[in-house]
């Protein structure tokens, strides 16, 4: 069992853009802090993503639809859906997210969007083979 008491507080205390907390065979828990004027970055995953926003406000752009997101909101992004979340507040946008199955390496800690993108492009942020589903 993995236990994360007061996950909202833990997410809010992190200064990292992205930090993996736990990876299982079928899912992965990640906390994120998006700086003022920052964004998650437009992306498409091969896995489902559930995002729970614990502080701040954002403009969500999911499959071309725009919506205002605020503290307490949950957004589910199905696999294969283009999406981005842009911080619109004067404070960091804080969230925790669950990928199903895993999207990142089990030890990923990215200080910034740029660092995360660089590692992903270099193939250094891949989930472990045991956490990837066979497409066949």
Automatic annotation (TrEMBL):
Residue stretches in coiled coil = none
CDD domains, sorted: cupin_Bh2720-like
Cupin type-2 domain location is 31-99
Q: Which superkingdom?
A: Eukaryota
Enumerate the residue ranges of region (Disordered). Answer: 107-136
PANTHER family referenced in this protein's UniProt entry, alphabetically:
LIGAND BINDING DOMAIN PROTEIN, PUTATIVE (AFU_ORTHOLOGUE AFUA_6G14370)-RELATED (PTHR43346), QUERCETIN 2,3-DIOXYGENASE-RELATED (PTHR43346:SF1)
- Protein name from the UniProt record: Cupin type-2 domain-containing protein
Native organism: Rhizoctonia solani
């Amino acid at each position: 069992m993995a236990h994360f008491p007061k996950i909202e507080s833990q997410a809010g205390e992190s200064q990292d853009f992205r930090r993996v907390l736990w990876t299982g065979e079928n899912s992965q828990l990640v906390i994120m802090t998006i700086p003022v004027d920052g964004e998650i970055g437009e992306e498409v995953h091969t896995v489902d993503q559930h995002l729970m926003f614990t502080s701040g406000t954002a403009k969500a752009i999911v499959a071309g639809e725009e919506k205002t997101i605020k503290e307490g909101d949950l957004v589910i992004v199905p696999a294969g859906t283009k999406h981005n979340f842009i911080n619109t507040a004067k404070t960091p946008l804080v969230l925790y997210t669950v990928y199903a199955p895993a999207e990142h390496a089990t030890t990923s800690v990215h200080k910034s969007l740029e660092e995360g993108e660089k590692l992903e492009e270099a193939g250094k942020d891949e989930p472990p083979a045991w956490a990837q589903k066979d497409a066949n």
